[in-house]
Specification:
single chain; about 300 residues; mainly alpha; Rhomboid-like fold; two-stranded antiparallel sheet; 15 helices; 6 strands; globular
Length: about 300
């Protein structure tokens, strides 16, 4: 089928991380719909709830020990069309910015780390804060924590970049991110406290990730290392290092990742262009030079 070929092609491409994240979330959502319909027709609706529970993040330590994978799998689960549409739209809009300026690998790192830190905040809150400990056990699912990390990360990276919002017109994304965080804070005492706490964790990670990256520290290296290892296992191609006359030479991809910071004259010209025509008038190369200069 052409649909299956399109899916296979999307995952075969190495420069397609944003579409792959979107596609994984959609495929999981479709799979859950099919399971729910089949179990309903078969009269075994409890099976659907069991499947969701297996991959949702529980607040109870005993349940977490039995299902340790849920610290990540919860970030790919959605229930309800509005739930997934809202998350995927934000992932696409803000993820496109992160991907354009930082690349696919850092986008994936931001998503994964946002999900993990969101899970940590949720677990610590429900096991250490009395008001949550006294309540019933909770479970959390959804990509909101990971997506919030990407929203805040994009706003930290490009605070004055503007989106044209319906009814509001052009709005700088730093204000959009601030509203997202405030909504999450306001919702902690509501019916989705666990999810809102995960959002806050993701927001903090997104801010710290970009600030550390601008200082020259890539917090996503462990995620990238695991991804490289898994890729070599499934592809069957080992990572090669070439040694010549006692000198170890890094692969070409590693050499290309070295940040070459632009000269001040170039930055002055770019800033002049922004003052004349606005930030959106910059080319992709000019935007990347401006970001590299911010790492000084």
């Amino acid at each position: 089928m052409s649909i299956l070929n399109d899916i296979r092609t999307a995952f075969d491409r190495r420069d397609n991380a944003l579409n792959q994240l979107l596609l994984i979330n959609v495929l999981v959502f479709v799979a859950l719909i099919l399971i729910r319909v089949v179990t309903f027709i078969a009269g075994s609706g409890d099976l659907y709830e069991d499947v969701v529970r297996i991959f949702s993040l529980p607040s109870e330590p005993d349940a977490l020990i039995r299902r340790p994978w849920t610290v990540l799998t919860y970030a790919f689960l959605h229930q309800g069309f509005l739930h997934i549409i809202f998350n995927l739209l934000n992932l696409y809009w803000f993820g496109s910015l992160v991907r354009e300026y930082l690349g696919d690998r850092k986008l994936v790192s931001l998503y994964i780390l946002g999900a993990l830190v969101g899970a940590i905040f949720f677990l610590l809150s429900y096991n250490l804060i009395p008001v949550f400990r006294m309540g019933p056990p909770a479970e959390v699912l959804g990509a909101s924590g990971a997506v919030t990390a990407i929203i805040v990360g994009a706003a930290t990276l490009l605070p004055d970049y503007t989106f044209n919002l319906f009814l509001f017109g052009p709005v700088r994304i730093k204000y959009i991110a601030a509203v997202v965080v405030l909504i999450s804070l306001a919702g902690i005492d509501g019916g989705n406290a666990g999810g809102e706490i995960a959002h806050i964790g993701g927001a903090i990670l997104g801010f710290v990730f970009i600030k550390q990256l601008q200082r020259g520290t890539d917090l996503g290296r462990p995620v990238q290392a695991v991804g490289d290892f898994m890729g070599s296992v499934f592809s069957g191609r080992p990572r090669l290092r070439v040694t010549h006359r006692g000198r170890t030479e890094e692969p070409a991809a590693a050499r290309r990742s070295t940040v070459v910071k632009p000269e001040q004259d170039e930055i002055d010209l770019i800033l002049d262009k922004i003052s004349r025509s606005g930030y959106e008038s910059l080319s992709k190369d000019e935007k990347q030079k401006l970001f590299r200069a911010s790492q000084k």
